[in-house]
Amino acid sequence: MLAAAGGRLAAYHERLARLVGVDSGSGHVDGLRQVADLVQTWCLEAGMAVEREPVADPSGRPLGDVLIGRRRGRGRRRILLAGHLDTVFPPGTAAARPFRVQDGRAYGPGVSDDKGGVLAGLAAVEVLVALDREEYGELVLVCTPDEEIGSTGSRPLLRTLGSVADVALCLECARDNGDLVSARKGVADLEVTLRGRAAHAGIEPERGANALLAAARLTVALDALNGRWPGVTVNVGHLASGDRPNVVPDRARMLVDLRAWHTREYEAALAEIRRLVAEPQVSGVRAEVAVHAPTPPWEPGPAGQRLTELAAKVGAGLGVPVSHTATGGCADANLLAEAGAAVLDGLGPVGGADHSPSEWLDLDSVVPRTALLAGLIDEVSRADRD
Fold it and tell me: Active site at which residues (predicted)?
């Protein structure tokens, strides 16, 4: 496995430079289709059948294509490899901050999250083909264009793929200390709209209903939810209202982030937020909340524990230490777990500083982590169905 992964390293470097050199921020459809074209070419070269499915957000705005590569094996287990093609960076970032290598690390937009992970998944497929270790029934590589915005268009397809997969191995890169990811918090993005009544702040303020004041009071009430349930966090990350000091503002808008480790607490916190929004904070101000892209917690369970044990077994054989952790960030792994698949994440190379100008990928980790992923696919393929 290590030797075969090493034989793919030069191609991995070349592909990584090409992918990172194309802007593919969420919603930048032209760039997303360019990177999908590149990955499609490499999947076909690896002997995979390729499908492309255009997806759109709930309003109908195009988000790009989901790419699905499939390869049949000799066995019966269906193994899903899941990664994403989009980044958080706007057009122009690839030119302003181009791909570079320094002191054994690669830098550039999306180098770790998740272009390096997608390419590790593809390299693992190539390793297994080269070694004739195709004991799976079907190996499916899915690459979405909208993970960074909650997979709003890809969700139905991910749930379908997850419902028929025996195992989902997710290609987000390993944590910066090398940990795999065995659980993720659930997340809900909440938009609160408050409507009051405008008035002159000096002549007749009593005729107004201050939406900004209501939003401020609601912010304090929401912040007080932190600590009510273990591991639940509520963050008001944006509040906008008014534009003149002499006008009682009649509108306000809040964006709120809710996260929780467990479904019970997640649902309880969401219900409490709805109650607080419905409760009048200022007479004459009405508020309503919209929940965007709710993503349930991915909680650890027996099937996931078995996967971490298998990964540790494979790692021991390769001389690659394997540890794992839970993380507060959510990903497509949450949706695949909700669909019923056994899930393990963080199976790309080691990387860090995601979503920042300092994002990096440890190039020395590419070969051992590719071998670990290929070995885990092989081990799962041979295991008895849970």
Answer: 86, 147 (proton acceptor)
